Amino acid sequence: RLCELLDNAGRGWRKLAELAGAEKRFKCSAEELEMCSLKVLEPRGSPTQCLLQLLAERDCTLKYLLGCLERMGHEQACRVLSSAVQDMIRITVQPESQVVAEGTQVSLTCCATGPPGLAYQWFCGRQEVPGATSPELVIDTATPAGQPEWYICRVNCGATFTFSRWAHVQVEKSSSPSSASGYCLTMVGLQILRQPRPCRLAEGDTLALECRAIGNPPPQYQWFRNRRPVEGAQAPQLQVKLVTTAERGSYSCRVFNLFHEVWSQEVDVEIGEGPRQTSVTPPPALFPRAGVSHSITTPPSPIPAATDKVALLIGNMHYLHHKQLQAPIVDVHALGALLRQLDFKVVSLLDLRKAEMQMAVNEFLLLLDKGVYAGLLYYAGHGYENFGNSFMVPIDAPSAYTSEHCLCVQRVLREMQQRRTGLNIFLLDMCRKRNLNDDVIPQVGALEVTANIVFGYATCADAEAYELSQGELSNGIFVTFLKRWLLEDEKITVLLDKVAEDMGTLEITRGRQALELRSNLSERRALTDPIRPPGQDESSARNLQWAKAHVLPESRHLRFDCGVTVQLGFAAEFSNIMIIYTRVVAAPKDITKCEARLTDIPEELDVDLKCTNKESPEEVGSPLAPVWSLGCPSCCLYSRICGLQKLRQELAFTICLQYRYQGMDDFVEERQRVNVGRPLIAKLNLQ
């Protein structure tokens, strides 16, 4: 169908090839395009078919292809492809691993959605289970010993198929008469066969606890952490991927049915540094994927054990009791973009309260270990310095704040040193005036002699740091000049010296603001220094933890009863600020006007309702709209969602569709509730 639509000279396959080629690996050469065009000379040849084959060989995804068709404005082709994607087979109910008493029966269930005519086939290990061609498989545990205990279900429609996940059936033997072949469930009510076990995990591991019981009626489950119910944890197995310290605690499971209730034993889950648990892995997949095997080689590196560079950027602007600032949003964004070019992993956050700042720093410290080459902390906002100690002021600091309400930079640095980071860099873009409300001298303790510390103060002691207004945008003086040198291959102290020299040439701040550099760096270390590819370490806690703070919800299409299809998309401005856009992509011909608006946004988020559902990115109140809007389609309604670190549960909102039929004056309204999980920094539970 796509070939029929695109085999023409207008908005056809050549335009698709041009747009797909925006990503280098999908760009077709002149010879390949000529090969496609010559297909018209064949009896059943199709240039589009040839182009799609080339894209498929380069691992082009359906999502990317759909995006190219949307940019072409080819609505009919978009509808065809969207329909095809929806018809893919999807497993909706996975078979669950179970522990059962010897001599009883157990059932496994696999349900799927997809095109009509789905067929099921169960496998035991690698062997087909004869006659097991329905969604439910009943297993008799009294069968002879020795048969495989792993089960999987294949769902297919013609040549298209997919597999469920593996389910492990474990038969428990017991010396008690009640577990013999004449076992009567109604006599004992509920019995727990498998208790959860305590465990110690590292950051980024997967937590897996299991409680298995038998009973009649069948048992139900509810997991508890620290004696409070875990939301959504109502299965025999509790699994949490990419764990953080927020998941540690005491876990137990309440098992119940209509007549009885029993509790599992309470077990402790510790999360932090230490050896990880090993887990049982299921047998290999029945049909290995065809393809090329890849091997990763680690090139020699002059820097031993240097595997990562990480950065935390914090910009505080909208203070509750103090003067508002303008520059941090621009400075943090600009600095983050440059650091990413230097292979830094960057988390950038705006407008944090004290507890949120402390939690963000704690999460940052968890990422640092002996394999980290450089850890960089940049802060832009209000600050002060008393008795040689610097303090970062959160947005909720009271009017007469003291060190009790702020974060001490030296304390953070001391904790970074304890993590044995190769290079610690602080870039503090804040005032260093004395705070007359604070006469307390905090006992921070002496810093270790590690020869790895670089302080870059935007201004000298007892002086202020200034912003430079440039039209609608404002830059801090420090970052204005730092941007010029940050990508240079220079020792970090030499680089900052050049920034200081440039700052001294600015007439309006001469004698009022000057960069101060403190360092005990004894080796040549630069931000541009290469890092060793981590190889196996890609699955480390650090990488997984960092990835969690950057995951956006998947773009999706919502279908309403009236026949209208709405695209819901997402873009990230910072790690705690997300753009949500809605766009009508298909509507019946008898609907003349319709729009989809975002409503019912959680109250704890910082959302200016006057700046939601705007027709242009510039109207949402962000000076960075020209940057993030490049990745958004046209003809959308845009909303800017701030303060994602405040989310206490999954982000849910309503899409309100208002439309009008041809020849009618009144609008009709339909609503759909949408849950997008915990996006970006919300996954780290900073509240």
Automatic annotation (TrEMBL):
Residues forming the Ig-like domain are: 89-164, 177-270
Q: SUPFAM superfamilies from the xrefs?
A: Caspase-like (SSF52129), DEATH domain (SSF47986), Immunoglobulin (SSF48726)
**GO biological process per UniProt:** proteolysis
Molecular function terms in GO for this entry? cysteine-type endopeptidase activity
Q: Which Gene3D superfamilies match?
A: 2.60.40.3360, 3.40.50.1460, Death Domain, Fas, Immunoglobulins
Q: Which InterPro entries does the record associate with it?
A: Caspase-like_dom_sf (IPR029030), Caspase-related_regulators (IPR052039), DEATH-like_dom_sf (IPR011029), Ig-like_dom (IPR007110), Ig-like_dom_sf (IPR036179), Ig-like_fold (IPR013783), Ig_sub (IPR003599), Ig_sub2 (IPR003598)
SMART domains, sorted: IG (SM00409), IGc2 (SM00408)
Ranges of residues in domain Caspase family p20: 307-435
Q: Supply the name of the protein.
A: MALT1 protein
Recall the taxonomic lineage recorded for the source organism: Eukaryota, Metazoa, Chordata, Craniata, Vertebrata
* Gene from which the chain derives: Malt1_2
